[in-house]
Amino acid sequence: MAYQAGGQRPAPRSAPVRPQAQEYLEDYAALVEAVPFPSFIVDQRWDVLLSNGAFQSLFRGVGPHPTAMPSDNFLRFVLFHPDAGSVLGEHESRWCLPMLAQFAAALERNGHDPALQAVRRDIAQDPFMEAAYRQGLPHWVRAMGETALEHDGSVRPLLHPDPRWGATDCRIVDETPRTLRDMDRTRLTLVLRGRRPAGNRGSAPRVRRTAGHLTVVPAPED
């Protein structure tokens, strides 16, 4: 994990950058850790290079998974982790489809990237997700317009494991400075938007997915 307990500065994952850039990243890590909301930095593959303590707390109840842990790759977590719906409210329509749109755009730009190709193969292995990708996603992108490919400013539901938050919303804010952008990295912060009435709060329910979880498009016909 990028976050280290005990008050230590979180360390960004090592990457081939110039010494000055590495120093910048180390200092920037301290800034990310100081933010009270979940904040993380990803590369073009959505590998999580750095995340703060609030991010770790949000996903603390997520079970183990060999390829889709939120602190490893956020795209894979949203698409493939069976516990994603226990944290990401209205998971299919509000999180999975936007991430599929982001993935489709990334695959169009970098179609030969082996990590993105591996995600594409995993999508193809789930008939429902494959149908959503091939059939449901184009309709959704046309309906949403340019906003379909933008995370910044989106408001999405969360189910926070901390009962002081419980069922709430977050606004996704892209806080990528030019220096990070020049490194092909993106910083996103999930700004929690306040507590809902006490009667609607509580810890996140344990919702697990199985293969064929997507219901945003009809089941493919034989």
One letter per element, helices H and strands E, the order comes to HEEHHHHHEEHE
Largest sheet: 5 strands, antiparallel
Secondary structural class = alpha+beta
Q: Work out the helicity level.
A: 25-40%
Instruction: Give the strand content.
Output: 5-15%
C-alpha end-to-end distance: 43 Å
Which value, in Å, is the CA radius of gyration? 17 Å
Counting DSSP E segments of at least 2 residues, the number of strands comes to 5
Uncertain stretches: 1-10, 196-207, 217-222
Number of helices: 7
Question: Largest beta sheet: what is the strand line-up?
Answer: 2-1-5-4-3
**What is the global morphology?**
globular
Description:
The protein is an alpha+beta fold. Helices cover 37% and strands 13% of the residues. The chain has a five-stranded antiparallel β-sheet with strand order 2-1-5-4-3, sandwiched between helices.
Notable characteristics:
222 residues, five-stranded antiparallel beta sheet, 13% strand, disordered N terminus, globular, 7 helices, alpha+beta, single chain
